[in-house]
Amino acid sequence: MEAAEAEYFSKDFEWDELRAEVENDPSFRYHLLPFESSTIPSSQTTTRATTAEEEEDSTAWKRFHIRHSSGKFFKERRYLLKEFPELVSCGESSKVLEVGCGNGSTALPILRGNEHIIVYACDCSSEILERAEEIIDAATVVPVRHRFRTFCCDFSVTGLPKWLACHTCREVFLQKQQNCLSDVKESHERHYNDSNSLKESTSCIGGMDFVTLIFTLSAVTFQRMPASIKECFSVLKPGGMLLFRDYGLYDMTMLRFEPNQRVGFMEYMRSDGTRSYFFSLDTVRDLFVGAGFIELELEYCCVKSVNRRNEKTMQRVWVHGKFQKPM
Questions:
Q1: Does residue 278 surpass a pLDDT of 90?
Q2: What does the pLDDT read at residue 276?
Q3: pLDDT of 43 strictly over 70
Q4: For residue 150, what is the DSSP state?
Q5: Which is the most buried residue in 192, 231, 299, 303, by most CB within 10 A?
Q6: Taking 80 as the threshold, does the pLDDT of residue 266 lie above it?
Q7: Under which EC number(s) is this enzyme classified (predicted)?
């Protein structure tokens, strides 16, 4: 296990070398071309088109989660505690918001690694939230369920519920940012009381110490990313941190997409309707600094893995980032 984790973290190749290889290969040239949409919506249809796109994206991910509801599709992300040791060393009763939690593969190692931390987790699929709760119940002999609190929400469409954010933080944010913390239907504003049963709540829980965006932002359309990041900014306490990990530019999966799967510049759509964006460091920096964050760490994580079945080497690229809300 330790050897496997070490291999997962290591810098197996230089990103600049991969970049040169890809950009000099004619077969990959279509990835680098400016993207031109085949249709340009008029001002009268833009709002309707955006709404329909949001609904289609959400539906596609719900279908994806139902199809992979067994949990076998995702592996527990044990590397996160090494990548983000702040989750282990933080103070007692620190609160984490895991955005796009899926089946709990991110939340579980966090709960195991810190017996005092509380994880709030949201996803657009109520079915996958139920599955995440089941997996976390069954995955450990140490009870952690009382520290795992779920609510259904698509942060890129409806925003995050107001009860997550400290009132003072939200007021300051509203004064400085035009895109404010959005309302969410009361049916989505749920969390656990002392008896672990779900209930509606409109009372503020004091804001988050951490927000994690782990392979979540890439599933959002690029146009909605700035507002989505501002939502995360708004629920953090002053000095709170956002921990980011997602697909990097020229990752192996990006190079496998066909030209007709491009839906934007560095943005692709899979056959099942789910999206994936591939980030450069400059893009990530612009998005998060533009939302008000201070950059603490930002780098490519480049890993070679070998498919034992066909003995092919795969070059994986992820972006690792830590960002802080100013005090």
A1: yes
A2: 95
A3: no
A4: E
A5: 231
A6: yes
A7: 2.1.1.-
Q: Which helix (H) or strand (E) holds 43?
A: helix 43-67
What does the pLDDT read at residue 143? 74
Q: How far is CA 187 from the centre of its chain?
A: 23
On the question of pLDDT at 14 being above 90, the answer is: yes
Q: What is the pLDDT of residues 52-81, one digit of tens each?
A: 666 666 676 566 556 655 555 567 777 899
Question: Token pair of 158, please?
Answer: 């409806």
Beta carbons within 8 Å of 81's beta carbon, 6+ residues apart: 87, 88, 109, 110, 113
* Number of neighbours of residue 110 by Cβ within 10 angstroms: 27
CA nearest to 236, candidates 212, 203, 209: 209
Cα dist. 189→97, 107, 185, 204 in Å?
Answer: 14, 20, 7, 11
pLDDT band of residue 6 (cuts 50, 70, 90) is very low
Per-residue exposure over 54-71, b if at least 16 CB sit within 10 Å of its own CB, e if not:
beebbebbbebbeeebeb
| pLDDT confidence bin for 125, thresholds 50/70/90 | confident
Sorted by sequence, the CB contacts under 8 Å of residue 149 that are 6+ apart come out as 118, 119, 120, 121, 191, 192
Q: Which domains does the chain have, with CATH numbers?
A: 2-28+70-256+277-324 (3.40.50.150)
Give the separation between CA 37 and CA 153, rounded to whole angstroms.
Answer: 30
Using the structure block, give the residue that is written with the tokens 């709960």: 111
- How far is the C-alpha of 119 from the C-alpha of 211, rounded, in Å? 10
